[in-house]
Amino acid sequence: MKLYFALSFLILVFNNICSAQIRPGARQVALSHSDVAMSDDVFSLFNNPAGAAQLNWREVGVYYSPAPFGIKELANGYAAYQQPVGIGTFAAGFMTYGFDLYRENKFALAFSMRAADNFFIGTTVTYQSLTIEKYGSDGSISINIGGLTYLLKTLRLGFSVSNINRASYGKEKNQIPTILSAGVSYDYSDNLTINTSVIKELDFHASMRFGIEYSIIKYLDLRIGLSNKPNSFSSGIGINYDFIQLDYALFTHQDLGLTHQAGIIIHFGSGKSRKEKIKDYLNFD
Question: Which of 48, 73, 197, 267 meets the CB 3.0–4.6 Å disulfide criterion with 99?
Fold first, then answer.
């Protein structure tokens, strides 16, 4: 009994330490999750649901981290799909995290829309279940909201609130974190985007995030990111060819060391770059 409790407690501690690690995808990890004001791929429903409304094409994505920091018990994976319709964009996603003794699953549904010419809003409703062997299981419904606006065609502001309804498991409070995020994204050029954000989990210090994405050639993106509290460095690459985007990220933690993530996104639409398709959709010259 003590062993089960110790293992469960250990995973909960790692869950808090590595909260940035169990948010998808590999592109976002490579940017140290500084992209709340960019949020322009299928994983938006888990990060800033408003961002999906910038995309008028279908996407499906898979993200997997098999053994963060060499610990297979922390394995986590995500899958997501988004479908634009006349009134906005619908999305659905799934997440699994943990191992036999401790398991978290999420099922998410999201909707986002263009509320004004350059303003987008979105919300995600998530059913999250927790199972601890010998202790039982429980589930809860949480709500995330997000917004994104273009001040200029190259400058965006964004925000999101995760678990705005303060959902939790059982009678214990704060088992599911409430996280506030806000940031700025700037396209310095057609090939270079600079992101910065602040992420604040209630009852914890705010964390500053910074990330750069640079399209070095047509099919290859390079990414780097920095954050504090905890101090970390990230980097990664994205390979974009036709309808397939392959992403890889490398992430360091000041206490836990180095880990890797990978993801794939398949998008249905023209062969233009993501930035070009968004500009076309938003009627930016």
Answer: 73
